[in-house]
């Protein structure tokens, strides 16, 4: 027996093809146009569009219509690649807006992560990171005082990891954790978040070729524009029964 596909699913499938061939922020047909094109009710057209909204493929702007959502940028979880390197690998120009750049008294968490001695003062670097003209992440990096030479660098244009290498420290290892949470008012404003208001917060410690910590960083990514990937391997000694 042949089962008839619900009309809203047929429309949603057709809209997915439109989205796949469209640029980010392109306007989709209105509900009225979909009703006329597919000969369905307004409720059915709205249901079809709602499927794509739920999947993060499109977004609605009240009074203006429905638009193609920007493609999410993927990041490999735990990768020591810098933001600049990650953007470059995806063909996007990276730039930064420096929000804060100075030596600070470390928090207990920063002190432990960077293995600081009493009295040592690390460098705080907070930047808004952009891919092209789109705000992608809000980054707070606390850098070991062994690399205090970064204070002489132009961190609006330079990669932090490139500066580390110039100072003789090669970023070799990353330990990272990721969690999702509601964005703060500051994060919503700077990242220009939509109604979801969710960020993916990655905390990581980057170590150099001598296994000495270089930076303790929290980066808040716009969840609507970012996703994380993980590559997993089964250990040789694991029980496979």
Summarize the structure.
By secondary structure, the chain is of the alpha+beta class. Helix content is 26%, strand content 31%. Helix 1 crosses helix 3 and helix 2 packs across helix 3.
Question: What would your notes on this structure say?
Answer:
The protein is of the alpha+beta class. The chain folds into 2 domains: 7-68, Winged helix-like DNA-binding domain superfamily/Winged helix DNA-binding domain (Arc Repressor Mutant, subunit A, Orthogonal Bundle); 73-229, Chorismate lyase-like (Chorismate lyase), CATH 3.40.1410. The chain has 7 helices and 10 strands. It has helices at residues 7-20, 31-38, 42-54, 83-89, 108-114, 160-166, 185-191; strands at residues 58-61, 65-68, 73-76, 94-103, 123-131, 134-143, 173-182, 198-207, 213-222, 226-229. The strands form 3 sheets. Strands 4-5-6-9-8-7 form a 6-stranded antiparallel sheet. A two-stranded antiparallel sheet has the order 1-2. A two-stranded parallel ribbon has the order 3-10. A hairpin with a 5-residue loop joins strand 8 (198-207) and strand 9 (213-222). Helix 1 (7-20) packs across helix 3 and helix 2 packs across helix 3. The two termini are 41 Å apart. The model has no long low-confidence stretch (mean pLDDT 85).
């Amino acid at each position: 027996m042949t089962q008839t596909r619900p009309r809203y699913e047929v429309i949603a499938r057709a809209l997915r093809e439109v989205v796949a061939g469209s640029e980010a922020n392109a306007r989709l047909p209105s509900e009225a146009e979909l009703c006329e094109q597919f000969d369905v009710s307004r409720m059915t057209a709205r249901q079809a569009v709602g499927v794509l909204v739920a999947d993060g493929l499109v977004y609605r702007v009240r009074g203006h219509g429905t638009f193609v959502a920007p493609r999410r940028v993927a990041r490999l979880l735990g990768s020591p690649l810098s933001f600049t390197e990650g953007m470059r690998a995806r063909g996007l120009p990276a730039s930064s807006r420096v929000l804060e750049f100075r030596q600070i008294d470390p928090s207990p968490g920063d002190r432990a992560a960077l293995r600081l001695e009493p009295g040592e003062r690390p460098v705080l670097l907070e930047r808004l990171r952009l891919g092209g003209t789109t705000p992608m992440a809000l980054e707070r990096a606390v850098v070991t005082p062994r690399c205090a030479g970064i204070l002489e660098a132009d961190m609006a244009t330079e990669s932090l990891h490139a500066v580390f290498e110039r100072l003789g420290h090669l970023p070799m290892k990353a330990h990272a954790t990721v969690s999702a949470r509601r964005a703060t008012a500051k994060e919503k404003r700077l990242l220009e978040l939509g109604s979801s208001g969710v960020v993916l917060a990655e905390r990581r410690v980057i170590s150099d070729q001598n296994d000495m910590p270089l930076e303790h960083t929290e980066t808040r990514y716009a969840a609507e524009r970012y996703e994380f990937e993980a590559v997993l391997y089964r250990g040789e000694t694991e029980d496979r029964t």
